Model the fold of this input.
Amino acid sequence: MAHRRRLTIKQVAEAAGVSTQTVSRVLNNRPDVAAETFRRVQRIIADTGYAPNLLARGLTQGRSRTLGIVAYGLEYFGPTRILTGIERQAAKMGYSITLNLIHEPETDGADSLLNNLAARQVDGIIWAIPEVSQNRDWSHTKGPGFPVPVLLVGGMSGQTSVPSIAIDNGAIGRLATEHLVAGGARRIGIITGPLNWWEARERHRGWREILRAHGLPNDEGLFVEGDWTAASGERGLDRLLETARDIDAVFASNDQMALGVLHGAHRLGRRVPDDLSVVGVDNIAEGSHYWPSLSTVHQPLRDAGALAVLTIDTLIEEANRRDELDGSSVTPNRVLPPKLIVRESSRPTRAVPPRAESDELPYRGEA
Amino acid sequence: MAHRRRLTIKQVAEAAGVSTQTVSRVLNNRPDVAAETFRRVQRIIADTGYAPNLLARGLTQGRSRTLGIVAYGLEYFGPTRILTGIERQAAKMGYSITLNLIHEPETDGADSLLNNLAARQVDGIIWAIPEVSQNRDWSHTKGPGFPVPVLLVGGMSGQTSVPSIAIDNGAIGRLATEHLVAGGARRIGIITGPLNWWEARERHRGWREILRAHGLPNDEGLFVEGDWTAASGERGLDRLLETARDIDAVFASNDQMALGVLHGAHRLGRRVPDDLSVVGVDNIAEGSHYWPSLSTVHQPLRDAGALAVLTIDTLIEEANRRDELDGSSVTPNRVLPPKLIVRESSRPTRAVPPRAESDELPYRGEA
DNA sequence: CTGAAAGCGCTTACAG
DNA sequence: CTGAAAGCGCTTACAG
Done:
């Protein structure tokens, strides 16, 4: 099976008895071609299956219609959702996608990655890596002056010097905790993600805010740091029960850890939700088939991905126009709201007792 | 923040006081440059942060060092594993990846997708879409003669006219069923994936083969078609219990459906594994935290992805050499073996009773 | 409506 | 060791 040589515009032009420009005009659907010529060229293109070399086209137009995507952790739920949203919208808009996966979110390879993508002449870059430790430092130096527009998407603090699309992670914590309080819970533990993750810190903050607002305990004994895995959720429950035997609810910062909590509760004979309410985050598909089915907080990640593409497209257009106008533009920072999904793992809403009463609850139950 | 213009080789050459060829030599690490010149050029490259335009380089070299990946269903476990394997190996070998997602596996857009990828001058294409219905028909016509090497990976029949890397799905069914038999099960139901999927049919075939070999029942009443979702697994168990009330084991063709079965068993008060053994397929991370933890069959999907890149690289090299030699090569079709993982949802191995005895089991328990 | 010329940013022979 | 010339496959002004 000899792979045949790819056709060029020259050969098509010859076959049609016209110049290459005319073929180019047909390819780009320009109006200024005689109808008869247009048809003749078109027929030859169809017959030969000719397709223009997009590398060459990109070279002349200074535009590749390719987006560079940097992502992390396809084994997790969030990143795949964002990526799906990105790909779908990109395909819709005629963009190709160049995918780069990072193996550790705390990468220091950001610089070379961005340069490599720029060298490949991508029109824009979507950085879909969660903010962990100092892994965003590059954005301060690299953002302005970098030859290609960059957009951050996913778990990061909303206000950055680089345009960004984020989910309101503080609201995630507030939504989950408010729901647990409304269900009558009074000692609400939390199992967070790794605290070098911005998302984990924000969800924790949301939890604390609501507990404070209701005058409920939110001390150290009600708090355990997990690592997003189900195993850490199960261990986390054990540790919570050591420091606060009488907890009546747990906010697990993702569904995997919530699954670990359900598993642990089952093992320990604590009934969910009667003895213990549980809420997770993410709304993974399996959650409705856990036992009991899992209450959770949904993040509009696919929307975030799609919005990222829409936004980067605008930024690309702006950058092109700016070459002429040389004006500067605002840095869009959008934050999307999460949504609570109530299932069977949490007690349904009751009347919330007045604040004064909650203040009298025992503050800490050291084991 | 005016995005600065990208530097070109010409500007670097000027700054260094040499010709562009000399800069090119330095960029490509050619030996035939005076040490002093080499250093001078290198310094300027470092100072300016110049990076060569890879589109232009690809155009002259007729090679983009880009791989086109066509995948489906990032919301599922398998595809993300394959993709991770592909990306990792590709990055290691200096390939970029162009990702195209398909929304329905039964696409008829294969042709235009392949053409588009070819137009983007990818060096090779990895087709990571499972074989569903007739969605592989293109490979007969498109494979040979197509200007870029194509490799199939994932769920497909091993023997194709196009090179392929597959998992032995028949072995998956045999492994799971043999294990259930070894645990003492005698009426083993199956919940398959959609039967227009090759993978689903193969797992079903493996199940039937083992039951036959042991003289165990494998009639219609023990068989339900699912759709890979946990919900279909739960419904599937209900239906199995209607037609075969006395089943003592279920082989669910993926872990999600197995989760549905566990859920259903819990609801119906059937103890797992005492009343009902359950085995899934995939070895998803959460499986060890289901209740009880899920026995399953692992597929080496990441390896398959990595092997796919290694193989396509060889094919690309071969194709390049063949342009000179004009020889033809063999079509590699590799099949990788799965691995059984035993946890708590299935009874541990016992002595298997002799065949004669099993033959006397009631053949069918119509509800 | 159509084509000859020039150029996008590189690399590949070819000279010297 | 280094550079002038040509070319990769397109598109963009510019003529006519």
